[in-house]
Design a protein that fits this description.
Blueprint: E1 3-10, H1 12-16, H2 20-29, E2 33-40, H3 44-50, H4 60-66, E3 72-80, H5 82-90, H6 103-107, E4 120-122, H7 126-136
Antiparallel strand pairs: 1-3, 1-4, 2-3
Bound molecules: adenosine-5'-diphosphate.
The site of adenosine-5'-diphosphate (ADP) has 9 residues, from loops.
Length: 144
């Protein structure tokens, strides 16, 4: 197993529901280490780049406006197999299909918004993690 660093975003629903500390605690208790942490407001430019893979889909404008409802929190987390383990702890995209005990299963929307209001984003591959860490953290903002 290799140590990896991945990007997690606490989405506006996480921040609005007051879950920032609780969700972070789950990841820290799972053994991950914080290498970078910041709060920011997402811009259209940032979201167009971050969500380029869904930008042509009909629900994208709704996702874009959701992601600007409140500030978000960006985290660089390090640990063994972090990329896949962080996503396992998060659960699948649709919160209504996420198992209880996962972050999305426990805190994500269970209504018609369950595919969108799903608490966190997490990088899904080493390539995505490298690009996304660079997108959200400047030089010197991810610590050793
Ligand atoms: P994930 O965040 O689980 O990697 P995707 O990369 O497929 O999922 O989608 C990016 C984000 O777009 C999701 O986390 C969710 O907020 C939103 N999304 C995905 N599919 C839908 C959908 N069918 N309707 C509304 N929002 C969606």
């Amino acid at each position: 197993m290799a140590s990896e660093t991945t990007l997690i975003l606490f989405k506006p629903d996480c921040v609005q529901k007051g879950l920032t500390g609780l969700v972070l605690d789950r990841y820290l208790k799972a053994g991950f280490r914080i290498r970078g942490l910041k709060m920011l407001e997402a811009t259209d430019e940032l979201l167009n780049e971050h969500y380029a893979h869904i930008a042509s889909l009909p629900f994208f404008p709704e996702v874009q406006s959701f992601m600007k409802e409140a500030p978000i929190v960006a985290l660089a987390l390090e640990g063994e197999d972090a990329i896949s383990r962080v996503r396992d702890i998060l659960g699948p995209t649709d919160s209504s299909e996420a198992a209880s005990g996962t972050i999305r299963g426990d805190f994500g929307a269970k209504d018609g918004d369950s595919k969108m209001r799903n608490i966190c984003h997490a990088s899904d591959s080493p390539e995505a993690a490298a690009a996304e860490l660079k997108r959200f953290f400047g030089e010197g903002e991810v610590f050793a």
